[in-house]
Amino acid sequence: MPDFGLKYFILQQRVIHLYRHAIRASKYIPDPQARSETIAWFRSEIERNKWLTDVVVIEEKINMARREIRQILPTSQPQAL
Fold first, then answer.
1. Which pLDDT belongs to residue 74?
2. C-beta of residue 45 within 8 angstroms of C-beta of residue 65
3. Rounded (10°) CA dihedral 62, 65, 67, 69
4. DSSP per-residue codes, 44-60
5. Do the beta carbons of residue 18 and residue 78 sit within 8 Å?
6. What is residue 73's predicted lDDT score, i.e. its pLDDT?
7. 71 pLDDT exceeds 70?
């Protein structure tokens, strides 16, 4: 079993923060169907990567998710922790 350190738990909180930000930002999508699909897509990405334990890979995934949120939700600017 991997040794989870402080950095891992900080990254875990960053993922939760990013998810909440995506949910809040999605309210600006006018079409309800598109909004729910966007939220479902983002949630599925988090679920797909929830077993990652390598801190570097997790950081890369967080940065990639931020870029994708900026592209999909242009009015959105996720705040760095």
1. 67
2. yes
3. -140
4. HHHHHTTT---HHHHHH
5. yes
6. 78
7. yes
